[in-house]
Amino acid sequence: MPAEPAPQESFVRSACRLGPVPEVTEIRLHLAEDVMGLWQRTEDELGTGQPPPFWAFAWPGGQALARYVLDHPGLVAGRRVLDLGSGSGLVAIAAAMAGAAAVVASEIDALAAAAVRLNARANGVPVPVIAGDVLDGDGDGAEVVLAGDVWYSGPLAERVLGFLERARARGASVLTGDVGRAFLPRDRFRVLDTRDIAVLADLEDASVKPAMVWAMLGP
How far are the Cα atoms of 125, 153, 200 from residue 24, in angstroms, in the given order? Predict the structure, then answer.
């Protein structure tokens, strides 16, 4: 008999609808539209203290980064890729579809890890998940490190920057996607691409945000 799906995967399936990503229509994700409603549901069904369901939305920086990777497959083709703070798995899936030799997603949220696994299967690509905090490391040999929408809080941004700088110092290419949030260390990156992304009003302060793809400068 086939194994029963994990409770987290069952929750993601029941709470979200599988459909194409607006800026990356080649990829389908399990997505939700009601931010607060979904967060309340996670607490009602899975217990209090659940993290925000960042995994259920295609954030603008991730969409811009995934689009850039698909449009420039030479960035990842034949290379080992780590997607930091993967969320829905959008960027990791894009890297796998662009021909990466191997892609690993990292996530600290069990529901996000479940979403990544489901979304990877829906798109027919392998994306194993590292479940846990990797920010004290340097990417563990990944030749390309991708990070979409990770600059939304000061303490997190400090740790992310340290991680990315260690990865860059050992020779990895580092790209991030972001809408220019305050905690993004602009002096450490250069802009590769900018595009306007439609976003949910509950997630951002405007219905359309200019999302940028940034490359980390060398050490």
Answer: 16, 26, 16
Question: Rounded to whole angstroms, how far apart are CA atoms 127 and 112?
Answer: 13
Domains and CATH numbers, the chain: 7-216 (3.40.50.150)
Q: Kindly state the DSSP code that residue 149 receives in the 8-state scheme.
A: S
Q: Centre a 10 Å sphere on the Cβ of residue 6 and count the other Cβ atoms it contains.
A: 14
pTM value surpassing 0.90: yes
Q: How far is CA 29 from the centre of its chain?
A: 12
Q: Hey, what amino acid is at 113?
A: A
Give the pLDDT of residue 85. Answer: 96
pLDDT in tens, 181-210: 999 999 999 999 999 998 876 666 677 889
The pLDDT averaged over each successive group of 10 residues in the chain (219 residues) is 66 94 96 85 84 91 98 98 97 98 96 96 97 96 97 96 98 96 96 92 75 95
C-alpha triplet 52, 55, 57: angle, nearest 5° = 95
Q: Give the distance, in angstroms, between the CA of residue 189 and the centroid of all CA atoms in the same chain.
A: 18
**Residue-wise DSSP of 72-124:** -GGGTBTSEEEEET-TTSHHHHHHHHTTBSEEEEEES-HHHHHHHHHHHHHTT
